[in-house]
Design a protein that fits this description.
The complex is a heterodimer. Helices cover about 75% and strands about 0% of the residues of chain A. Chain A is an all-alpha fold. The radius of gyration of chain A is 20 Å and the shape is elongated. By secondary structure, chain B is mainly alpha-helical. Chain B is globular. The N terminus of chain B is likely disordered. The chains are: A mainly alpha, B mainly alpha.
Chain lengths: ~200, ~575
């Protein structure tokens, strides 16, 4: 067997490398379905807490709306930016891909910065009441995902420094980072409507 | 095969980079103690590690039964009893049945059964295994801080006010094994979906694969919810949040929902792989095509689906509103339908078969009896009025030990005996196997049957002391538990001795038709020494008896077929 000669340290047998494209995207999708259940658990718990309080959010833990809205716009538009990058790599335009992915990473970083700024200016902390518990845990957990997404994007940019690492027929890694980013984005939209918009009603 | 080796994407790594560390011809013993990406090694690692936890948790049960021999709390301190109780449950569930049934059998058998060389993500697979030992160590460490006192459910407020350090370590440990289970399930799904050999049609998949598919979907959908519940609990204990503190506006029932949304499906995680094992064993050893292949396959998926919507039946006494009680009582009864379909199909398979009553089949038939009984007591528990009466009594303990021990553990034993020749290349000792079976069966019956009566009379579970009037029945249970404890000894001797000195098994000692029996025993490192061929359905036993008997062995039939193909 030829595959006997592959190294022990995890490199897949050659045939597997050939089909890897399908594997990894499919695996990521399965993982994201599982991951979304985590957020779903948080959302449902939040709605239960909301329904058991007469005023929501309770007195003294109001949220501001302007900064998060700007943040939302930044994050949502970054999804389009990263898609430009994906289109670029499909057209074999690696510098273009690196540019668009770089912009996405910067937008993600701005989002995280805005989030931190919001934490610092809100005037209440994690332990104030159940609303603040939910608020910090949910945004924090999402922020963690944004952070991981940025790391993935930077990883793609870093790897693409070598010519030929990604090209029009081999861009699974690029695509996976994009899928993950869209996921983070969709979660944020739900989170934003729950934590911010729902407090208006 | 060759075209994929063109180093278009990455330059080929020079041999020096791998430290000259190449695949050996076969794994040596020490390969089983390190990081290894071969699914067969990982499967055996899972089985052996979880068996160690099984022994530890079993010892805990022995101590608990010894304490319960008398009504007074005279042998153990009640706090120690609580810690033992919690860790017995936690270990048996998260460190024995789940890893051995899903991790062990799943890893070992899935690629072999679908004709693949390895899992889709071998590295992820190895990582998923290596998360388990540290998780186990965390759980052990929690014992040195007094141990978690709350039972395996860790309900707040009890979990918020007792032994905070131990409880936190317990939570971290469970989150770790949970992530391991997600990684494993992901791998199984992708492997089955993408690496199944093309000749094998979906309705020719072995039923174990169908069962593992249902298991993986269930694990992927439910485990994250438990993780969130535990993370919130961790924050409540350590970081001053109040999700489950009513005085801060929190709600303890939310935890119960999050917990049971995982932990009810967890009982299907523990039994579905075993159902798969059952289908393989019963059909093979009664030499008959499985009765109702599609019914069994789809009933696994049905259990997976319905199983996601029954969790509130654990919470009938938690102030659950009436409509919820009604809904979840009905959905609980509905789960019995697909389960019953399986039971009937197995009985119908056995009916009129050419039964070889070897140890795997003995355990499988034992499982049938025990599981039907445990399943029926489960149905009674699904009825709200009865559940309210026996909630948190020994009736519940009796029920879940019948299905978990009499069901899952019997199935694990059956599977271990059945695939022992494949895993080691040697046969186990039949006499010791039968002694093991008889001791286990009698021990189980003596230990757990009287508990039904204890529960109906109102003895609460999870408490070290009880009313002296229950003493006699408890002593019977303790004697049974001692027998059950001793029953492991012939098993261990059998496994250890046969692994070294058992008689050689050959490729296919059971003359089974699934793909894993087409390769050598134990299988070569990349599984198949020649390409596996689907020359019959997985359960086409005895369909063309004459030609089947005429050909002396499967190898020769294989040779014939492969020549025809060429």
């Amino acid at each position: 067997m030829t595959a006997i000669n592959t190294s022990v340290n995890g490199s897949k047998p050659p045939e597997a490398a050939h089909e890897e494209h399908d594997f990894r995207t499919f695996g990521l999708l399965v993982f994201l379905i599982s991951e979304s259940l985590m957020f779903a658990a948080l959302f449902v718990s939040y709605l239960i807490y909301r329904s058991s309080h007469s005023t929501w959010p309770p007195e003294g833990t109001e949220v501001e709306l302007l900064l998060p809205t700007i943040n939302t716009i930044i994050l949502v538009s970054s999804s389009f930016v990263i898609h430009r990058g994906d289109t670029a790599v499909k057209n074999n335009d690696i510098p273009g891909m690196r540019l668009w992915y770089g912009i996405t990473a910067v937008m993600g970083a701005i989002f995280l910065g805005g989030q931190v700024y919001e934490y610092l200016t809100l005037g209440y902390g994690l332990t104030e009441n159940v609303f603040s518990n939910c608020f910090y845990i949910m945004t924090g957990f999402h922020g963690l995902h944004v952070f991981i997404g940025i790391m993935l994007i930077l990883g793609v940019v870093w790897r693409s420094r070598r010519p030929g690492h990604y090209h029009a027929n081999k861009h699974t890694g690029v695509e996976m980072a994009e899928i993950y980013w869209h996921f983070v984005d969709v979660i944020w939209i739900i989170l934003f409507s729950l934590l911010y918009i729902l407090t208006l009603f | 095969m060759a075209q994929a080796q063109i180093p278009l994407n990455s330059p080929p790594s020079p041999p020096a980079e791998t430290n000259g560390h190449q695949h050996p011809e076969a794994w040596k013993w020490y390969h089983y103690f390190g990081y290894n990406t071969d699914h067969k090694v990982i499967g055996i690692q899972y089985i052996v590690l979880s068996f160690v936890f099984y022994l530890i948790a079993g010892m805990m049960a022995m101590f608990m039964r010894a304490e319960l021999y008398t009504a007074e709390s005279d042998f153990l301190d009640p706090n120690v009893y609580n810690a033992l109780l919690t860790n017995h449950g936690t270990m048996m569930i998260f460190f024995w049945v789940v890893p051995v049934a899903i991790g062990g059998f799943g890893n070992y058998l899935i690629p072999l059964m679908v004709g693949a060389k390895d899992m889709a993500f071998p590295n992820l697979n190895a990582i998923a295994f290596w998360v388990n030992p540290p998780a186990g160590l965390l759980l052990m460490a929690s014992l040195f801080f007094g141990g978690s006192q709350t039972g395996w459910t860790a309900y707040p407020p009890l979990s918020l006010i007792t032994n905070n350090t131990a409880q936190s370590l317990w939570i971290l440990s469970i989150i770790l094994v949970g992530s391991s289970s997600i990684m494993g399930a992901l791998n199984f799904l992708v492997t089955i979906y993408k690496l199944k050999i093309p000749d094998m049609r979906w309705n020719e998949l072995p039923l174990f694969i169908w069962a593992m598919m249902a298991t993986s979907i269930l694990a992927l959908l439910s485990t994250p919810v438990l993780a969130i519940g535990l993370i919130l609990l961790l924050f409540d204990i350590n970081f001053g949040t109040g999700f489950f503190r009513p005085e801060m506006g929190g709600n303890v029932v939310v935890y119960q929902h999050l917990f049971w949304f995982y932990s009810h499906p967890a009982v299907y995680l523990m039994i579905l792989p075993i159902f798969g094992v059952m289908s393989e064993i019963i059909s093979t050893h009664s030499r008959k095509p499985i009765f109702g292949y599609l019914a069994i396959a789809y009933s696994s998926l049905a259990i997976c689906f319905v199983g996601l919507f029954v969790w509130v039946h654990h919470m009938f006494s938690s102030g659950t509103p009436a409509w919820m009680r009604m809904f979840f009582a009905i959905s609980t009864f509905i789960v019995a339908v697909p389960t019953g379909v399986k039971i009937f199909s197995w009985v119908a398979t056995l009916w009129g078969g050419k039964i070889r009553l070897r140890t795997p089949l003995l355990f499988a038939v034992g499982l049938l009896a025990m599981f039907v009984f445990g399943g029926l007591s489960g149905i009674t528990l699904g009825a709200v009025p009865f559940d309210l009466h026996v909630h948190d009594t020994y009736y519940v303990v009796a029920h879940f030990h019948y299905v978990l021990f009499g069901g899952s553990v019997f199935g694990v034993y059956a599977g271990l005996y059945h695939w022992f020749p494949k895993m080691t290349g040697r046969m186990y000792n039949e006499t010791l196997g039968r002694i093991h079976f008889v001791m286990t069966l009698i021990g189980t019956l003596i230990t757990f049957t009287p508990m039904h009566s204890l529960g109906l009379q109102g003895m609460p579970r999870r408490v070290a002391m009880y009313d002296p009037k229950f003493e006699f029945i408890n002593q019977i249970c303790t004697y049974g538990a001692i027998l059950l404890g001793l029953s492991v000894i012939p098993f261990i001797i059998n496994m250890a001795w046969s692994w070294r000195y058992g008689e050689k098994a050959g490729r296919n000692p059971w003359r089974s038709l699934t793909l894993e029996w087409q390769t050598t025993s134990p299988p070569a490192i990349e599984n198949f020494d020649e390409e596996p061929i689907v020359w019959a359905g997985p359960y086409d036993y005895g369909i063309d008896t004459q030609s089947f008997e005429a050909v002396p062995s499967v190898e020769e039939m294989l040779k014939e077929v492969s020549q025809e193909v060429k």
